[in-house]
Amino acid sequence: MAIDPSEARKVAHLARIAVADDALPALAAELNGILHFMEQLNEVDVDGVEPMTGVEKMRLKRREDVVTDGHQQAAVLANAPDAREGFFAVPKVVE
To answer: Which of 5, 34, 47, 70 has the fewest Cβ atoms within 10 Å of its own Cβ atom?
Structure first.
């Protein structure tokens, strides 16, 4: 599949990119290059290749999932306009 300047204009319009008429042939050539590269990728035999999250085989470091209070109660409450008994104090909304 080849992209000509008229199709490049449509692609630019769909992508909401302003492209001058004299730049459309260059854009079409660049899009054709991208499509050619994608065709090359489709030719690669990937049967039996395991999917990877990165180029190096390594497991992510994991930590124990423990619920804590963050040990920063005083620092957090210092930012509050009104704090009482270790909690944020807010005006009563519902009677």
So the answer is: 47
